[in-house]
């Protein structure tokens, strides 16, 4: 059996060199098994619902504007994905576009959920795993859980209050 890749978010260096990094922390972070996220047993119910929601859509294709009109859709873009997961966690009442997430919730890194938003793209960290649609429309396959590092220059970190 392969050991999970490591998880624990790290904002490294200055904003010019900022990256999202994955490092495993037992009991605090989720792992990916067969493309799906498996939450840590001690995660709060909202986080369990967020991970379950991410798992429901993590095989859906990418579609620009997907998930904007309704939470349930056949395909999702970055903000549709983020909206769907936060709604399932009970932390968002209507779908939101990527740039609007720059003022969502509370400022900074959350204990369980962090939203990384900039004009034109948004992604989530849930229990240490990244749920993202890719770096741009051109390289997106749709919502997927990932442990791959990615740049965060220009992103604002926000989180649902209490999470």
Task: Outline the structure in words.
- The chain is an alpha+beta fold and 163 residues long.
- It has one domain: Alpha-Beta Complex (endopeptidase fold (from Nostoc punctiforme)), CATH 3.90.1720.10.
- It has two helices and ten strands.
- The protein has helices at 45-57, 78-88, and strands at residues 19-20, 31-33, 36-38, 106-107, 113-118, 121-126, 129-132, 144-146, 150-151, 156-159.
- The strands form three sheets. Strands 4-10-5-6-7-8 form a six-stranded antiparallel beta sheet, covered by helices on one side. A two-stranded antiparallel ribbon has the order 1-9. The chain has a two-stranded antiparallel sheet with strand order 2-3.
- Helix 1 runs antiparallel to helix 2.
- The protein is globular.
- Mean pLDDT is 87; it is low at 1-16.
Determine the strand fraction and express it as a percent band: 15-25%
Order of helices and strands: EEEHHEEEEEEE
Q: State the assembly state of the protein chains.
A: single chain
CATH class: Alpha Beta
| Biggest sheet descriptor | 6 strands, antiparallel
Number of structurally distinct domains: 1
CATH topology: endopeptidase fold (from Nostoc punctiforme)
Strand order of the largest sheet: 4-10-5-6-7-8
Which regions are unreliable across 5 or more consecutive residues at pLDDT < 50?
Answer: 1-16
What is the percent of helical residues? 10-25%
Count of discrete alpha- or pi-helical segments spanning 4 or more residues: 2
Protein name: Peptidoglycan endopeptidase
Region (Disordered): 136-163
């Amino acid at each position: 059996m392969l050991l999970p890749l490591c998880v624990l978010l790290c904002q490294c260096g200055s904003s010019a060199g900022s990256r999202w990094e994955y490092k495993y922390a037992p009991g605090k972070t989720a792992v990916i098994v067969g493309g799906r996220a498996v939450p840590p047993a001690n995660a709060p119910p909202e986080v369990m619902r967020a991970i379950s929601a991410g798992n429901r859509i993590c095989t859906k294709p990418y579609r620009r504007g997907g998930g904007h009109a309704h939470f349930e859709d056949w395909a999702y873009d970055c903000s549709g994905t983020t909206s769907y997961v936060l709604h399932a966690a009970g932390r968002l009442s209507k779908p939101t576009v990527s740039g609007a997430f720059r003022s969502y919730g509370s400022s900074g890194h959350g204990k369980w959920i962090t939203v990384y938003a900039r004009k034109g793209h948004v992604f989530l960290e849930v229990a240490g795993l990244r749920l993202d649609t890719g770096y741009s429309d051109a390289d997106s396959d749709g919502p997927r859980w990932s442990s791959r590092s990615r740049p965060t220059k220009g992103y604002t970190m926000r989180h649902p209050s209490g999470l």
